[in-house]
Amino acid sequence: MSTEQKPAVLVLADLEKVRVLAEPMRLSILRVLHQQPATVKQIADAVGAVAGRIHYHVKELERHGLIVLSSRQEKGSIIEKYYTTTADSYAVDPLLFALTDEPPPTYLATAERVRAGFVAAHRQPAGVEERVIEAHIEEGFRLTAAQARELLSFITATLEDQRSSGRKPTASRYTVALLVYPSPPPALGRDS
């Protein structure tokens, strides 16, 4: 699995995966693998544990889709297996522990991807000219549902035009996160 295929955030909506991830040794293993792919022996050396113990935890993480075998390298008569994480970070779906039977909405995963991308942009090295260009517009637009869809279509079409017009050598790559949603009713005593 290449880093380009790796999602920024894997939202865990399965209690069993959360249980597997909650073990401290497994979190240590994920931290090592987040830096670069590694073998069981390399992981064991990095966390100061016995390779047999690490092997068990690696197999559990792999079985639950939290890490994958990324490559095999032949060293003499030995084949070294390198593992890597399946995401840059993992988050627990907040509705996993909800007390209702309603299914978790997909917009939580979208919001988490936006949050993770925003955090990653802020963690860029100091030499990066622009980290985040932020525009926060408070709620208050009054639109019909059709107007909201039209606004979103206009912005999407504009961005697609930019993408298809070709790459400029001096242009930097940006991610745009735009969420258009109806505002909740105002609290009592607040202007509407």
Distance N to C terminus: 50 Å
Number of DSSP helices?
A: 6
Could you name the CATH homologous superfamily of the domain at 1-131? Winged helix-like DNA-binding domain superfamily/Winged helix DNA-binding domain
Question: Which term fits the overall shape?
Answer: extended
Top-tier CATH class of the domain at 1-131: Mainly Alpha
CATH architecture of the domain at 1-131: Orthogonal Bundle
Strand content: 5-15%
The number of distinct β-strands equals: 4
Q: Which fold name is given in CATH as the topology of the domain at 1-131?
A: Arc Repressor Mutant, subunit A
* Low-pLDDT stretches: none
Query: What proportion of the residues is helical, as a percent range?
Result: 25-40%
Radius of gyration: 22 Å
Strand order of the largest sheet: 1-4
Tell me the major beta sheet: 2 strands, parallel
The helix/strand class is alpha+beta
Rounded average pLDDT: 79
Order of secondary-structure elements: EHHHHEEEHH
